[in-house]
Design a protein that fits this description.
The complex is a heterodimer of chains A (355) and B (283).
Chain A (H helix, E strand, L loop, with lengths): L50 H7 L3 H15 L3 H26 L8 H18 L7 H19 L4 H21 L9 E2 L8 H23 L2 H11 L1 H6 L4 H27 L1 E2 L6 H14 L4 H17 L7 H15 L15
Antiparallel strand pairs in A: 1-2
Chain B lengths: L13 E10 L2 E11 L4 E5 L6 H8 L7 E6 L2 E2 L5 H6 L2 E3 L12 H6 L10 H6 L2 H21 L14 H14 L4 E5 L7 H16 L3 E5 L3 H7 L2 E6 L2 E6 L1 H6 L1 H8 L5 H18 L1
The chains are: A mainly alpha (355), B alpha/beta (283).
Chain lengths: 355, 283
């Protein structure tokens, strides 16, 4: 009603990109959807709309999120807060990438962290061994992540559902174990001394936010394009998609490669942020957390996924006071959210706006 | 019946030649041959399990036939993947509706325009004029085909929210948006009420007027006899008749297939009367 939902694929309005250009939220403000929003009124979204629901459909929501992210350092700029916010932003990028694979295309990938690792290691190795600035490693990172996406995708994407999930899980572990055993990746101790992208943590935070914002906008735009529709056709019914002329294998591969690029670039930011990486950063738990962000936020909903990623990355920090109990509380909170709102915090709308 | 056609010039739109399909030891299709000319309506009928849908799946690339060939305007399309067959101008519907349920009705029909709109990743990321033009055309065409099938329900909401009969229309609209030369309809009237069936009949005729050839699987004999130029009858994977509706209706083997071998004369007469009655009712 108020504006096209992020799933509206028409892209007709001149400003239609702003509607789903969600960006990073920030830790200091918590999340936009705290408090439990009312359940949807019905499958067709008919009937009176609640204020929360209208706010969620607002086309400026994404820009508001970006504004919050940009203003956050003025509220709290301690090194700790900046570090948490930067990590959250990187996590948003990961979630936006996985959302392409899982949310749009419906391919359950349990080893997504593999691409994160490939990106981080490629830039890390090149920058430390060859003394290149991080930016100079980007072309190589793109090439390597695309190849990784193709190599991992080629055999796995012939499988469906559960089988696909298990094989991706395997590839995630293969990448981590490989990094653990190669000399060039520094073995278990990893790589340290990775150069930063910018001078200080504040400027790095802003660079990260801008890159992640672009990545989120890009993912949303892809989602609303011809290719994005094809991804959702595959998710909804692979056979029907084929019957309409959609080469489902190529389309799934495109989703996988796009996910790999997003994950790989997030990996570069990750290495630049921490200046050191090791195989322990790329465990299955990390894949599971990214997937959780996507599901918690709302699969296929770019805004939801951004919120989900901020919640997943920041909540454990906010629960630090609980000391040993914080992961227990984290888990309980997630279970409660999924029970109360199984469709996710900010679900995708299957309704599109009339023009 | 159908001699193998080598030349593309005079080849029928679709020719199925001695098609065989077996699953393990089970013979689903045992030597099916038929042709479909431009803008012709051919029905494939037969009892449940006769192999009708399997034949559809062989034509559209979902199954690879064990033997035989499927030709489109003389070109061998046997074993092509479904999307490649679709790209050559063949569209289909499914026996049990296969809509993209969570997507809007418009998006469902936009699927048919997928191969026509030109747009690459950079167009999508940068929202170039080409992207906007493609999206606009896709939307306009989707509206056009929804108008054509006479959809009354909400186009902007998810397809799953529509009533069953409306979903059937959306599926046909989606197939038409592919702008096919050949449309395969798998029981388009199944589960529809009397009024909806009449509308479907009318829709099939209007599709044919567009110059689209139709292969129809249908159990409603009234509809089949009314709309088809030719009827192919399958039983246990074997083709037992191929001809104009009037001829096929009188074929003793067809009557037997529908009623069983041990039916006595009275029952056969009764069946003939009802088959004929179905035609009269529709005419």
């Amino acid at each position: 009603m108020t504006g096209p939902g992020d799933q509206a694929p028409t892209g007709a309005g001149p400003d239609s990109d702003s509607d789903s250009d969600s960006t990073t939220g920030t830790p200091t403000t918590g999340t936009p959807s705290r408090g439990i929003p009312p359940r949807r009124t019905g499958p067709r979204g008919a009937g009176p709309r609640s204020i929360a629901s209208r706010l969620m459909d607002n086309r400026w929501a994404g820009l508001a999120g970006l504004l919050v992210a940009l203003l956050a350092p003025f509220v709290n700029a301690t090194p700790y807060a900046l570090s948490v916010m930067t990590s959250a932003a990187i996590f948003v990028m990961l979630a936006a990438g996985l959302n392409i694979v899982v949310g749009y295309c419906g391919l359950l990938d349990l080893g997504y962290v593999a691409f994160f690792a490939v990106g981080a290691y490629t830039s890390g190795v090149l920058s430390t061994r060859l003394g290149l600035p991080l930016v100079a490693t980007l072309p190589a990172v793109l090439v390597v992540t695309v190849i990784a996406g193709l190599v991992i995708g080629a055999p796995t994407l012939r499988l469906r559902s559960d089988y696909l999930a298990i094989v991706t899980l395997g590839f995630g572990e293969i990448i981590r174990v490989t990094a653990n055993n190669l000399d060039v990746t520094g073995g278990p101790s990893g790589i340290y001394g990775i150069p930063g992208l910018t001078g200080g943590p504040v400027s790095f935070y802003y660079v990260t936010v801008l890159i992640v914002a672009l990545a989120v906008v890009g993912a949303a735009r892809l989602g609303r394009s011809r290719l994005g529709r094809a991804w959702r056709f595959v998710r909804e019914d692979e056979d029907a998609a084929e019957a309409m002329g959609v080469h489902t294998y190529k389309v799934k591969m495109a989703a996988y490669v796009a996910g790999a690029i997003w994950g790989g670039l997030a990996g570069v930011l990750f290495g630049a942020h921490l200046s050191a990486i090791s195989p322990t950063s790329f465990t299955f738990l990390q894949s599971a957390l990214v997937l959780m962000a996507v599901v918690l936020g709302g699969m296929g909903s770019i805004r939801g996924v951004v919120v989900g990623a901020v919640v997943i990355s920041v909540l454990p920090e906010l629960l630090r006071d609980l000391a040993d109990y914080r992961y227990l509380a984290f888990g309980v909170l997630l279970i409660i959210v999924m029970l109360v709102r199984p469709q996710g915090l900010w679900p995708a709308r299957s309704r599109e706006a009339a023009q | 019946m159908n001699s193998t056609v080598k030349s593309t010039a005079n080849a029928p739109l679709l020719s199925v030649e001695d098609l065989r399909l077996s699953f393990g030891g089970v013979l689903a299709i045992d030597g099916l041959s038929f042709g479909v000319g431009e803008a012709e309506i051919v029905s494939v009928i037969g009892p449940n399990g006769a192999g009708k849908t399997s034949a559809f799946n062989c034509v559209t690339g979902f199954y690879r036939p064990t033997a035989g060939a499927v030709r489109l305007r003389g070109r061998d399309i046997t074993g092509l993947r479904p999307s490649a067959v679709a790209a050559l101008g063949v569209a289909r519907t499914f026996q049990n509706l296969r809509l993209f349920g969570e997507m809007s009705v418009l998006d469902n029909v936009r699927a048919g325009t997928h191969l026509r709109i030109r747009q690459n990743v950079f167009d999508a990321l940068l929202h170039t004029p080409r992207y906007r033009r493609g999206e606009r055309e896709s939307t306009e065409q989707a509206h056009h085909w929804l108008d054509f099938v006479g959809l009354r329900g909400d186009r902007y909401g998810p397809a799953r929210a529509l009533p069953y009969g409306e979903q059937r229309r959306v599926e046909i609209a989606r197939a038409l948006a592919r702008e096919p030369d050949l449309l395969l309809l798998d029981e388009p009237a199944a589960g529809l009420n009397h009024g909806e069936k009449a509308e479907t009949l009318d829709l099939i005729r209007r599709v044919r007027e567009l110059g689209v050839a139709i292969v129809l699987i249908e159990h409603d004999m009234g509809l089949v006899m009314d709309v088809s130029q030719r009827v192919v009858v399958l039983n246990f994977g074997r083709e037992i008749a191929d001809g104009p509706p009037d001829e096929v209706r009188r074929d003793p083997e067809v009557v037997e297939a529908y009623l069983g071998r041990d039916a006595d004369e009275a029952e056969i007469e009764e069946a003939r009367a009802s088959v004929a009655g179905g035609r009269d009712g529709g005419a």
